[in-house]
Inverse folding.
């Protein structure tokens, strides 16, 4: 990756701008009287602290989430200086556009069918999207990607395991992109906890152009908290911090996430159960006459090709079971994306599908 030059890749205005400097940013020593941030010194109507050692809510939270990052760093084996935390990984996706993509001029590459927010964020930021569909085995079309890259291509989004297909993308293919693309390769690992494939986190030291996204919304069971992570070089994280809103994560998010991180065993146990249920459900679904194909999954959902997905989707909705109809999506004809539920929910789904056949 000799030709990678971060400073050339970052938008001019972002490189040159002076970031907002918050009161809590500027002061890092010990003090007892805080008259610097125009907070309400008398208190907060929410009188109970979020957790045992969180700060009261009348005070602004730590803008750089030091304690939470230290804890995540310990678990992931990545230094805090290489971590960005945001309001879901969606915030990190949006910031990547704002840091690297000049509206109108620049473009990004996505490989549909894939997670919808890459395109939504591109549209919001007025950045052109080049779509290079996956091949029929849901792996990257490397030749077509190479053919689509031009001097204005800043980001390539790779979702692995991919949503909605569920498969992991071949590691060697991602490495090939990392070795040959001068822009940023974003590897979205939202579902990595459920995967057989290893995370790309250890590769961060190898590739200055790698950004890995992970989230607390899936295996960590905290979709309601809104907490996502981006891991990258210190230099890239510096730009994330420069562009983000000063206090992008509330005190409650930071404090509750710290508490959740104490419960690794529970999370690992749930992950094991979900993977077990995924394999069981895949087998059961494959035996139904209405099922055409259950695609192998490395995630907590299954993509299932059906006889008539639209009709089946409506039928399931009528019985009170909501799945995701992906049949209008490229390469997903007649397919439903089904999240792995509790054993009872999975059984309920199967019962409904069996009743449909009858
Ligand atoms: C591949 C992928 N990336 C990112 C996200 C968003 O995660 P978050 O809840 O952290 O914004 C999702 C959510 O479904 C996803 O499927």
């Amino acid at each position: 990756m000799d030709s990678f030059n971060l400073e050339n890749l970052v938008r001019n205005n972002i490189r040159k701008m002076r970031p907002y400097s918050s009161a809590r940013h500027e002061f890092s020593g010990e003090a007892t009287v805080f008259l610097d941030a125009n907070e309400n010194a008398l208190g907060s109507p929410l009188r109970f602290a979020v957790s045992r050692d969180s700060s009261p809510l009348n005070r602004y939270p730590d803008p750089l989430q030091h304690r939470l990052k230290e804890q995540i760093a310990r678990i992931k084996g990545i230094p805090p200086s290489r971590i960005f935390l945001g309001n879901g990984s969606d915030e990190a996706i949006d910031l990547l556009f704002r840091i690297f993509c000049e509206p109108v001029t620049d473009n990004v590459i996505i490989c549909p069918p894939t997670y919808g927010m890459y395109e939504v964020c591109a549209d919001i930021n007025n950045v052109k999207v080049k779509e290079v569909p996956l091949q029929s085995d849901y792996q990257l079309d490397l030749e077509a990607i190479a053919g689509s890259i031009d001097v204005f291509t800043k980001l390539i989004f790779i979702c692995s395991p991919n949503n909605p297909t569920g498969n992991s993308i071949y590691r060697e293919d991602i490495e090939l992109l990392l070795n040959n693309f001068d822009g940023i390769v974003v590897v979205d690992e939202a579902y990595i906890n459920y995967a057989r494939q290893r995370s790309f986190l250890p590769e961060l030291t190898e590739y200055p152009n790698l950004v890995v996204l992970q989230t607390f919304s899936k295996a960590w069971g905290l979709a309601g908290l809104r907490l996502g992570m981006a891991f990258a070089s210190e230099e890239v994280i510096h730009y994330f911090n420069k562009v983000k809103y000063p206090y992008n994560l509330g005190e409650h998010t930071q404090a509750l996430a710290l508490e959740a991180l104490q419960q690794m065993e529970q999370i690992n146990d749930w992950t094991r159960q979900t993977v077990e249920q995924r394999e069981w459900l895949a087998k059961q679904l494959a035996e139904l006459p209405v099922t055409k194909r259950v695609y192998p999954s490395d995630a907590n959902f299954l993509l299932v090709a059906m006889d008539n997905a639209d009709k089946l989707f409506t039928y399931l909705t009528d019985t009170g079971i909501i799945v995701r109809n992906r049949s209008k999506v490229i390469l997903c004809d007649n397919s439903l994306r089904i999240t792995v539920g509790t054993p009872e929910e999975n059984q309920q789904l199967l019962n409904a599908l069996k009743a449909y056949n009858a």
